[in-house]
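FAQ: What does the model actually see?

It sees only this:
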Amino acid sequence: MLKAFCAGFASCGVIVLGLAAGAQSSMAPAFYISAGDIARGIEESLGDRPNMGVGAITTTDDWRINMIHRTAAANPIVHESGTEIHFITAGEGTFVTGGVVVTDADGNRTVEGGKAQIVREGDFVLVPDGTPHWYSRVDESVTYLEVRFYPND
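And it is asked to produce this:
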């Protein structure tokens, strides 16, 4: 299942290094985590939540970096603080951004007025803070590097 993740992670590693190199934090001059450690984190978290596995990479006051593996659609969310990047490393799905999150009488949430875009390996999405976003459809699975930057107050 995570074979594509490991192959795709190598291509997105350059992006992580470039992002981290330009940011300031209390971390050491470099940070390393193996693809195997990330894959194990995803597998373990899929045991707790079978539709979404999270391989935590690093979190600081300035950013949070995870590898996410989704096997099903999810509810829409909005991060009031934190611009987010999704770099797709494997799989395919429909990612909706913008619009307004609405809740129907049964408590189901969707997005109205957003833009739906099919995302697949190699695609890059930047989601500004305060923007609704939603994986409304997942074809078997979609895996992506998620980087969220927090503003310096």
